Amino acid sequence: MKLAAVGSNCVDYYTNIEGGKGYPGGGPVNMAVYTVRLGGEASYTGPVGNDKYGEIMREAMAAKGVDISHLEVKEGKTAVSFVELIDGERVFGDYEEGVLETYKLSEEDMDFICKHDVVICDLWGKVEGQYKDLKARGMTTAFDCATRPDDEASLVAIPYSDYVFFSVDDGDTEATREKMKEIKAKGPKLVICMMGEEGSMCYDGETFHKYGIVPCDNVVDSMGAGDSYIAGFLFGKVEGLSLEECMHKGAANATETLKYFGAW
After folding, report:
1. Using CA atoms, how far apart are residues 250 and 196, in angstroms rounded to an integer?
2. Which of 121, 124, 195, 236 stands 20 to 30 A from 32 (CA)?
3. How far from 82 is each of 12, 91, 93, 144, CA to CA, in Å?
4. pTM higher than 0.85
5. Rounded-to-integer distance, Cα 225 and Cα 18, Å
6. Per-residue pLDDT tens for 59-91?
7. Environment class of residue 204 by beta-carbon count within 10 Å: exposed (0-12), middle (13-18) or buried (19+)?
8. What is the DSSP letter of 67?
């Protein structure tokens, strides 16, 4: 498994821990780290600022074994997401986009990405408009819509994504299944919905496949749990595992991430 994680990164700044403390994160970055944790290879392509948080991001990713040869340092601020931790659940506050605001993949970046097995981006990555080109080059593509599959960025990426992920708070409802059918009709091979304590559900156009959770005895922080699931699921797909095995791999990977502060 060789994952190309592209687009968004940010420092998750916990406002109510030790008077304020920042942890490196951002969906694609997290997925790259979790892929390496599973024994795969991963790179991150995207921008950080030339500030202290940018330095933290670069050093942390490299220390985890992520290829940062296509990480770009730009004049300005690294993205920051402000978070409160309340009873093990993270509550997001303000988000400062920083140098991500105007990001776009270069031709060199695109060539580099195409040397991987699969590319993943999320809602905040700014490269959804280039998914069409990546797909045309034969790349296997995945996109994380977070809780907002109807946002413009999601709508642009979905038709050119093989695997579309999104999250809901209310579990397996009729509305959830209808949304999955709606997304599937736009072209993805699989639509995967992450449902927190209810586990996950995958729709292949014919059947809704459900999988529960791998229990965690000591939940510390849910930051990165969804990203862990995505990394595990994609790892399984590239390795040729069955759909149920992919869902299990995602769930087990998520449980590991629940055991500590920050995404990783």
Report:
1. 12
2. 195
3. 6, 9, 5, 20
4. yes
5. 23
6. 999 999 999 999 999 999 999 988 877 666 667
7. middle
8. B
